[in-house]
Specification:
The chain is of the alpha+beta class. It has 2 helices and 3 strands. Bound molecules: zinc ion (ZN).
Length: about 80
């Protein structure tokens, strides 16, 4: 699992651009119907380090800047990965 920031470092494109590309990558991965290679795009949600709140329902892929519960700004980065089913 990698955060957008880490992917950005790996492929040398801006973090903002990584976030723009991710929905397309997610669609491409889930759309692959090859029976031998069933891949799935997975998102590990951000979590607040202050109170443990998990941003499960967040549709946007960008790491949230602040916790809605305790207002802490210490949020783990949203991480992404591709896994075989
Ligand atoms: Zn919190």
């Amino acid at each position: 699992m990698l955060s957008a920031r880490e992917i950005s470092g790996e492929v040398r494109i801006k973090e903002k651009d990584v976030l723009e590309h991710l929905p397309h990558i997610a669609r491409t991965v889930s759309g692959s119907r090859d029976k031998d290679e069933k891949m799935r795009f997975i998102v590990e949600p951000s979590r607040c380090l202050g109170c443990g709140f998990v941003f499960k329902k967040r549709e946007r892929l960008k790491t949230p800047s602040r916790c809605p519960v305790c207002k802490s700004e210490e949020i783990t980065e949203t991480r992404f990965g591709i896994t075989e089913e």
